[in-house]
Amino acid sequence: MTEEKANEKTPEEIEAKRKETTRQLNLGFLTSQSVNDSYIAAIGTNEREYGNSIKEATQTNYLKSLQNIDSYTGKILGQMIGQNAANKFEKGQDIYESQMFSPKAYLKNIQKQYEAAVNGIKVTDLTALMGIKDIHENNISKEDRELTLAEFSKKNANLYGDLVENYLLNVQQTGIANSLMQNSAFRKDTLENILKTDLKKLEEENKKQ
Description:
mainly alpha; 209 residues; 11 helices
């Protein structure tokens, strides 16, 4: 057997490598801070479910995401800006003067891709992200824990639904709670700064300027 033949990968090995590469990409996407900030901001725009106060609190997540763009959010933004510019160019519009992307469309895109990425990670990845360690063998066997969520959905649709729903709710509610806490702390600091400032003296100094 030649060295070239010995190094040749089987179709099974090629497929296993492809799955692992996809899994790592999805894991990276789900754990990206920039993506997570955008995802929480996207959830916060649902005023019908969460109200205006949540929308206001999660706006800082959107700002943080744009201030800390990584390869994941950068790629999505780049694709949206490029497509929008191409569309405007075809219509004879000035691509330098027009808005390059819609923030709401961007957040909707992030939300869609985030929730789709969950299906590309393993069951054991999802439970690890949630900090769940104790899993009964009768609920999910050790073999099934190595399946992707998409694969597991075909074996146990009900439990798959529970896993994905609870994971997403955990991410959403934790993210919103953190945003509310940060917003509350900001309001406290703002009020504290106002109260400890001699407003009368400040007003007099402003009049002199």
